[in-house]
């Protein structure tokens, strides 16, 4: 028996739902007309786009679910799509996001430094799966365009990490900043525009203590307090996990904005563990995100429904609309991030 289900499809998101844009300033870019229409007809599913940074996100309302499948517009950015399952009684909705990279259909892309072009090069050698990346084929692999022994070493180790379901370190000396020191671990939270810091979580090996710096309304006071804390930790390395120097660059920019020059100076001791991990630490995972690597080492987040983007969007709504979030929930996520980082550091130091 066929069951008719009302689904609203709209390019523009409903106002104030998955619609915070930042290209022309941080603001809601959703449609108020669509929001009124949505609240009127109350469909169980609404599919929207337009707001790129919320693509691949969903929000549950009292009467249904809004799903944003917007894709970024770079030439090499993948297209995003979603598979939605609605039960016959219309009481349950399940969805799963995908992107066009899934259509490559090759497990070779699970390996570090392997993308579409590299898969094509492997195919020309008759290599179609990771288990064919072996020491015996090193000469062929090193002869590929842009490849070297550095790449082949990591392909082989990463393939072995998948096969053995273990996390391995290729070059322990690359993590010298973590040995014979008492590093200070750090993780920051910002708004979606990434131009305001409102929460910083830390763990001090020197004091064996966690500490958070929290002020959603006075960034200057928060950063001044953080700067004094960094001073208390002398010359010990400051370790964060970004993979793109984000925490360090954002802190430096905001310290400078508020004239806290000593804070900028302290960041000379900062190191992005995510950069080194991408090159030297491998496991049964195809992404080197903090939560992925820590989970492979046995760490579990207390609330798996929260991630950094959710935290940033909740705070941005607070700035734009005065909508008070559950601060304790957001602070718990930040503390979990610091503990996840500590899990990785402890593994490297062991």
TrEMBL record:
Entries under InterPro entries matching the protein: Metallo-depent_PP-like, RNaseH-like_sf, RNaseH_sf, YprB_RNase_H-like_dom
UniProt domain YprB ribonuclease H-like: residue ranges: 185-348
Gene Ontology molecular-function annotations: nucleic acid binding
Pfam family, any one: RNase_H_2
Superkingdom of origin: Archaea
Protein name: RecB family nuclease, putative, TM0106 family
Lineage, top ranks: Archaea, Methanobacteriati, Methanobacteriota, Stenosarchaea group, Halobacteria
């Amino acid at each position: 028996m066929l069951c008719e289900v009302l689904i609203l499809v709209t390019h523009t998101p409903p106002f104030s739902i998955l619609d915070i844009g930042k290209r022309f300033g941080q603001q809601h870019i959703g449609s108020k007309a669509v929001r009124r229409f949505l609240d009127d007809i109350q469909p169980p599913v609404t599919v929207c786009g337009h707001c790129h940074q919320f693509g691949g996100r969903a929000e549950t309302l009292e009467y249904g679910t809004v799903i944003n499948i917007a894709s970024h517009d770079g030439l090499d950015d993948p297209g995003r799509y979603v598979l939605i399952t609605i039960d016959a009684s219309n009481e349950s909705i399940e969805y799963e996001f995908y992107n066009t990279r899934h259509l490559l259909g090759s497990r070779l892309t699970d390996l570090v430094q392997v993308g579409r072009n590299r898969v094509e090069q492997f195919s020309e050698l008759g290599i179609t799966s990771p288990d064919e990346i072996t020491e015996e084929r090193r000469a062929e692999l090193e002869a590929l365009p842009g490849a070297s022994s550095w790449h082949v070493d990591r392909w082989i180790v990463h393939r072995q990490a998948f096969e053995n379901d273990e996390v391995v370190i290729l070059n322990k000396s690359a993590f010298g900043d973590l040995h014979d020191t008492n590093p200070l671990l750090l993780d920051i939270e910002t708004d979606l525009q990434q131009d305001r810091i409102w929460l910083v979580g830390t763990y001090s090996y020197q004091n064996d203590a966690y500490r958070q710096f929290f002020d959603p309304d006075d960034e200057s006071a928060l950063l001044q307090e953080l700067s004094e804390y960094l001073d208390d930790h002398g010359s010990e390395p400051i370790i964060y996990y970004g993979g793109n120097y984000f925490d360090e660059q954002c802190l430096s920019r905001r310290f400078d904005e508020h004239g806290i020059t000593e804070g900028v100076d302290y960041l000379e001791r900062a190191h992005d563990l995510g950069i080194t991990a991408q090159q030297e630490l491998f496991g049964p995972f195809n992404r080197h995100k903090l939560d992925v690597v820590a989970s492979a080492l046995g760490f579990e987040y207390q609330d798996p429904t929260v991630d950094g983007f959710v935290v940033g969007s909740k705070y941005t709504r607070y700035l734009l609309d005065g909508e008070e979030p559950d601060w304790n929930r957001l602070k718990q996520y930040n503390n979990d991030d610091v503990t996840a980082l500590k899990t990785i550091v402890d593994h490297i130091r062991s």
